[in-house]
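Subject: for your reference before the review

Hello V.,

The reviewers asked for a structural picture of the protein, and I figured it would be easier to keep everything in one thread rather than splitting it across files. Below is the amino acid sequence we used in the manuscript, unchanged from the supplementary table.
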Amino acid sequence: MSVWQQLYETYNQHLDEVGKPESRWTGKTFTLLPISHTTQTAHITVNITPTGEFHSAEVIEKGNGNTLIPSTEDSSSRAGSVVAPYPLHDKLPYVAGDYEAFGGVYKRENAHLVYIDNLKKWSESSHGFDRLKSIYSYLQKGRLIQDLVNEKVLFAETDGTLKWTWKEKEEKPLIYSVVTGGIEGAFIRFHVHSSEQLNQEPWRDPEFYQSFIDYYAEQAGESTLCFVTGQQKVGSTKHANKIRNAGDKAKLISANDSSGFTFRGRFDKSSEAASISYEVSQKAHNALKWLIQRQGRMIDQRVFLVWGSQATEMPSAVDSTFSLAALFDDVEEKEVFDTNQDGARAFSDALIGYKRKLPRQTVNILILDAATTGRLAILYYRSFDQEQYFSRLEAWHTEHPWEYTYFDSEKQRRVFIGAPALNDIATMAYGPRANEKLIKTTVERLIPCVVDGRGVPDDIRRSLTQRASNPIGMENWEWEKTLQIACGMINKKEGMNMALNQDMTDRDYLFGRLLALADYLERRALGNEKRATNAIRYMNAFSQNPARTWMTIQSALQPYQAKLGTKLTYINRLIDEVGAQIDPSDFTNKPLSGKYLLGFYSQRHDLYQKREETQTSKEESVEA
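And here is what came back from the structure prediction:
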């Protein structure tokens, strides 16, 4: 089933959401758009009386101007000198009949005449109604700018031209703070204000939506075969933009290069390659916009989206185990994340419990990006049966998990067992200052590791190992995070347990344990000093020449061993035991694989955990 059919069905499954405002971030709202509608950033609200007279006007504060407006195919795609007015709300040169009288120059000839003629046809049609007629009645008088000047929303010079000249100590008018470019770019929206009844704003009113949808449907063109539904429906040649955000001009479907080689040689017309009906195009594009705003993840304008056709919110393939906890309202976070195998088992149970609440449906994964400002591409699309998707997701988060430390929204330190976010893997593999194009490409490459069960690419694992072996070049928090993620990705291949394996005789693992013991010993001797230990300073060299570098590190430990004496007996004995486990033939300068990081992390974790338990026992005995 194609992505367009899935989006079309998603829209039809959520018709009750059409026009209802939602919010994902504070101060920003969005909605599932009705067909034949789009959004624009309005700058001025003009209130009109039911009798068609000017009532008042106000400048809309920045950030509050997002407005749902009726739209035609031509107006939603207009560019350059094309005259294609929006049906109701539009920019000043279109809606103001006195624009030219105030010195305005029409870049689009007859813009207002075409606008007012279209509005007249709509208001006088069988789908017109009182409030629409009130707006038309006022605008046909052609005095909008005069009223806005009188209201001190716009300003005119003594020669009658529409502009404002700054004078010393004079405060800048609000309109010039919200409009980018010239005043001709001001977008006007209209509302019918009545003292007798409370009228809903047109951009929130289903009556306005349905009126234009029904009216515009009667202006339909010729029917054509829709490749999505397989039915004969009114076709569409101009498809929607503004897919990723309100300023996005890139389109997913476009074939306007009649003079190039887009389809010549194979087809005579673009419609012969593929055709999608107007209804399907509108619903599919509107569903996609809604889903991106609602639950999409974006890295450098590349969109990563996971959704279900009926219950749209799905555990995302790009999120960490910790982040997915937000979906499991009935499971306490500490039950899921604070232990190793138990944590993985609890996550599986929580995922199964969440899945049981959902209807049986198709799960879709989509990645979008644009190479140019005008063309948007589908880089990756897969659809799964829900059971299969949840099975793959469970495997990624629970098979060979590792321990990760995160800080929640309240900056509390949290430890969880599972898998990190894909964005974190990419960022730690190439550094926080890496090019965002590299990060988003890496996240895209990691998606199949989650949803198809593929192994983590060797170059990503190698990059993580190299960075984790160079702690001196990073701040401590960055190195710790890189080390944890490197261990997690290496363990996806090695399939080991995070707990220390004292019976493991692998050369690389044992060398890693030695490095951890040396680091712990020196850290104990340094006490509150924050400087790096010799083990950490020589970590990169140790990974390349372990035998030679170990001799240097061991020599540097002798003053600390002499300083603490019997206090380090246990650690000294461990160093001897681990060193004795290495076969003499393996004690060479052959570079270490990433497995040494597993030994380093597990040994260090074991030492500090035992130390914490010892301190806790002492405190409890003192209290007793």
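For the response letter, the relevant points are probably these. The mean pLDDT is 87. The CA atoms of residues 499 and 602 lie 6 Å apart.

Happy to draft the paragraph if you're swamped.

O.
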